[in-house]
Amino acid sequence: MGSHKKDTGTAFVANVGTDITDATLVEIDIIKQDGTEATWDGTVYNVTKIKHVIVTGDYSVKGTYKASAQVTTPDGFWSGDEIEFYVSRKLID
After folding, report:
1. Does the pLDDT value for residue 76 go beyond 50?
2. Is 73 part of a structural domain of the chain?
3. What CA–CA distances, in Å, run from 79 to 6, 16, 72?
4. Which residue segment(s) compose the domain that 67 sits in?
5. What is the pTM of this model?
């Protein structure tokens, strides 16, 4: 199942590959197809993952999105690798 422009309530999950249970802040930086930048809030999910629940406006344009996890812990801050995913337009807007 893919992501569609009008989707809401869908969980977007980024696996960072390491234990982040001590994180004080987890976010996902987004660059949309049109160049718009956004920061999605997240929660630690299943020890190594960041989960964000899609809300209205997150998928505001169709096309390729770039995402990068951002994690802050008591020991410092680090960014994850950038990934790409595609948001399509629903058949009926």
Report:
1. yes
2. yes
3. 28, 9, 9
4. 3-88
5. 0.85
